[in-house]
Specification:
mainly alpha; two-stranded antiparallel ribbon
Length: about 325
């Protein structure tokens, strides 16, 4: 069997399942505006290798659930609404708003834009502050942010359940991969297996997102010159920059493409026969701005602040740690 992921042709259900999973792997490893900014911010914000892997897992779990449902809908020939030109713009705006709200949340602001009814509902459904109900009440009164309080002298990581919520929303993003899954593979599946292409595509994406999240978490924990508090401080700072300002960038892009739909057509053709890399346009540059530019700015600014706050490993402490390890 010859596998062509650029223009898939196949025979049989098993080939369709395999191609769906392989497309998910490619989707997870190539720059994608619906996955990279969110996985990066939550993985780094967890400031650990295990936490990074968990961030990738939770985000892609929500993403996979949505893709499986939409795949079944596509099999039933009900997914045509995703082809409307303004659909992706609306997804950008919603994703951007959720990113920005989460970013300001992480930034430990006393006041940040939110809707109390929606916020309380999310707290209850996803049990974001389980075991800290008293401090949750203080947060709703704009007096404290419980996720940023110290527990046993250390800072708590950001709530990874929010990554699952982000995954559910981001899964509605539409591009070349969704076009293939929903309108090429899913319609050729039996009705009772219509969800499988979306499920396998999501699992392929999950595989790469877990690896990416692990890599992001490992990168941050290898900053040997920072204490645990320093790593936590820098991690939250990076997450704040990527989510807050990256979210604003998504909202601006969504509004701009609603007003000027032709913006979707401005692309640089690379000739690389890989989806997400063949044509570089607005989605690609959103990834660059959100992850690379804002992530680096957040890293530099908060690293400098961490050093000023003396969240660094003293030379004698480092030498003692080295002696103990030898």
């Amino acid at each position: 069997m010859i596998i062509n992921l650029w223009n898939p042709t196949y025979e049989g259900i098993y080939a369709a399942i395999l191609i769906s999973y392989l497309l998910g792997l490619v989707h997870g490893i190539t720059p994608d505006e619906h996955t990279w900014p969110i996985t990066f911010s939550y993985a780094v914000g967890s400031y650990s290798t295990k936490g990074g892997a968990k961030a990738g897992l939770l985000f892609s779990s929500g993403f996979t659930l949505e893709r499986a449902v939409m795949s079944e809908i596509a099999t039933l020939a009900l997914a045509g609404f995703m082809l409307y030109p303004y659909f992706n713009s609306i997804v950008y705006i919603v994703v951007g708003l959720v990113m920005a709200l989460s970013g300001f949340y992480i930034a430990n602001k006393l006041r940040y834009p939110h809707i109390h009814v929606l916020e309380e509902s999310l707290y209850r459904v996803f049990r974001i502050h389980r075991g800290h109900e008293d401090k949750e009440k203080l947060e709703l009164e704009h007096m404290e942010n419980p996720i940023m309080t110290k527990v046993d002298g250390e800072y708590r990581p950001i709530p990874l359940r929010l990554a699952f919520v982000h995954g559910l929303i981001a899964g509605f993003g539409f591009g070349a991969f969704a076009l293939i899954i929903y309108f090429v593979i899913a319609p050729n599946m039996p009705v009772y297996l219509g969800f499988v292409p979306g499920l396998m595509f999501g699992l392929g994406t999950m595989t790469m997102q877990v690896l990416a999240g692990t890599a992001f978490g490992l990168w941050l924990t290898n900053k040997k010159n920072l204490t645990v508090k320093g790593i936590a401080y820098v991690a939250r700072g990076i997450s704040h920059f990527v989510l807050s300002y990256g979210g604003i960038a998504f909202v601006i892009a969504g509004i701009a493409t609603l007003v000027f739909p032709a913006l979707w057509d401005y692309q640089i053709i690379t000739g690389i026969k890989i989806h997400n890399l063949h044509a570089i346009g607005l989605p690609f540059f959103l990834v660059v701005i959100s992850v690379v530019v804002l992530g680096y700015i957040g890293y530099r600014i908060n690293l400098k602040k961490a050093i000023q706050l003396d969240y660094v490993v003293k030379r004698d402490q480092g030498e003692n740690a080295t002696k103990m390890g030898s």
